[in-house]
Amino acid sequence: MKRQLNSPLMAVLCLTLFAVLVVGCKKDAEEPEVEDTTGSEMPEPEPEVEVEPIEEPCAFETVYFEFDSAELDSASRTSIQEAVECYRGQNTNVSLLLTGAADPRGTEEYNIALGERRGQAVRGYLVSLGLDGSRISVTSVGEEMATGTDEAGWARDRNVSASEN
Amino acid sequence: MALTASAHRRFRGSLLCALVLMPVVFAAMPAASEDDAPPLPEDKIVVDIDAADEEVFRIGIPDLVGEPAIHAVGGADVLRNDFRLMPGFRVIGPGAIRHDFVSRGIAIDLDSWSVLGANGVIKGTISSRRSNVIVELRFYQSTGAGTAALRKTYQGSPDEIRKWMHDFANEVIGIVTGIRGPFGTEIAFARKLGLGRKSVYAAGMDGYGVRRVSSGGGVSMLPSFGAGTIWYTRLSTKGMFITNARAGGRRVIGGKGINMAPAICGDRVYFTSSRQGNSEIYSANLDGSAVRRLTKSRGIDVSPTCGPGSKLAFVSNRHGSPQVFTMNRDGSDVKRVTFRGGHNQTPVWCMDPKQPLIAFSGRDANFDIFIVDIETQEYRRLTQGQGDNKDPAFSPDCRLIAFTSNRRGGSGVYLSGQDGLDQNQVISGGAETVRWHR
Question: Domain count of chain B?
Fold first, then answer.
């Protein structure tokens, strides 16, 4: 009799335990288990997992110039500083190609030289901030890529952009 | 790619440091201030104005007498166009001629021409013999009592007719003015085909026979004649190098930075290079060897061009704004030669030592063409009030100046007399940096 009574009870208990285990395992797989913290016994805190932060790649923002000028304004200097700090923070030995450009309101030759002068101004500033000058080259496209037809467009044409070599 | 917020915070702190370092960086920059040159002359508006009739030589050029099929390949039309482009001449064409068109063949009836006010007449015949053509041309002057001042007979392939016409025009111009004409010479120019696409072309100075000279895609620009070929500059991803048509676009003069705008003077190439960090004038052998630096200034030095007597002209902003300078071809004896206007660029020097003239592009509101006598400092304005006019080039005899202009929308090449009169378009469809084979 005892045997008869115990058998269904054991079966229910086993099924219940199995169900609990299955549900528990599923929960583990999906989300951290919430432990019952009632009572005085506090669980050991889980060791923090060291997650490798995803570094945003450093960006050298294009800088812009006044007409017939290779002088960096404060916004350009700030932008360059930020890029340098970023490269420094990532301990990256970056090699840059700086390309200077001019608006189309000039002669082709002078604009090529002016674009290069702008690139050299940026290069000089980068070197002064600690970047290795031997890893920074400069070229110019003069007015060859200029698209401006008004003051706003010409202002965009007068720039130095950078690409990683 | 944007910087992170924390990066922004970190970098703000370095601003003070950067401002402290700024004077060090900009010690190498040119002076920003413009020099106080007086403005370029504006007292003469001369665009598209022809010389007064009393000052011109009126020349009658009827169609050649001969076979229409042969005539169609070029003949009197070429002659008429040459004299149309030549300052100081007016063409009396077939539309105005009612007498003596074919009635006297190649002979002349001066009375009928005097009614038209002709100072001279060119008459000719054209015929064929097997695959050759024969052209006989005569030039009569109103003072010549019916005797030809010049008679020539040409025989050869029909392909040579244009060349014969130019030759005869040049000889007639020599008789009338004392100096042979420039027809039959070539010009070269760059043409923009799209963003980042430009090629070098050449054509006759009358605009006939435009042909592409440069090889490859990308940007080819700043042509120049010399050593039997056409030189030009190519833009690469890391700089600019100099090549020529004979080299098929392969690098002849390269090196670090930009290397551009060759001018071939004798057995050396003069060019702009930034190989040592700043834009300076250099020279090299025709094969690119034995490079020598000629200028040393903190400013921009560009646009070397050959002058007479072992001289060069070039542009420098060493005094604050771009101006034209001259120097010996070894870099000595540097002199500034433009003292009016704030942006004077792309000089070209008349190679006749008796005419100490440099033409240049001067900028005030727009670019315009000017000529300065470098001995007297007399300035002449050739263009005003019609778009941008720039990049002048002297003809071999310096009587004509070619330049580019966008006065009719797209850029083209125009010819002008030294006084700014008789301006005519010879190239349309886009043109920059014109050079003349001298």
Answer: 2
Q: Cβ separation of B315 and A85 shorter than 8 Å? A: no
Q: Which residue, among A56, A111, A116, would best test binding to B if mutated, counting the most B CBs under 10 Å from its CB?
A: A116
Boundary of a domain, candidates B120, B148, B177? B177
CATH annotation of A63-164: 3.30.1330.60
The residue segments making up the domain with residue B130 are 53-177
CB within 8 Å of A36: residues ≥ 6 apart: none
For residues B149 and B292, give the distance between their C-alpha atoms in angstroms, rounded to a whole number.
52
Burial class (CB in 10 A: 0-12, 13-18, 19+), B395: buried
Instruction: For this complex, say whether ipTM is above 0.90.
Output: no
Q: Which of residues 230-249 of B touch A (CB under 8 A)?
A: 235, 237-240
Share the mean pLDDT of chain B.
Answer: 87
C-alpha A112: how far from chain center: 32
- What's the pLDDT tens digit per position in B206-264? 999 999 999 889 999 999 999 999 999 999 887 899 999 999 999 999 998 899 999 99
Domain ranges of chain A: 1-32, 63-164
Indicate which of B6, B14, B197, B219 best probes the interface with A, i.e. most A CBs within 10 Å of its own CB.
B14
Name residue B368's beta-bridge partners: B362
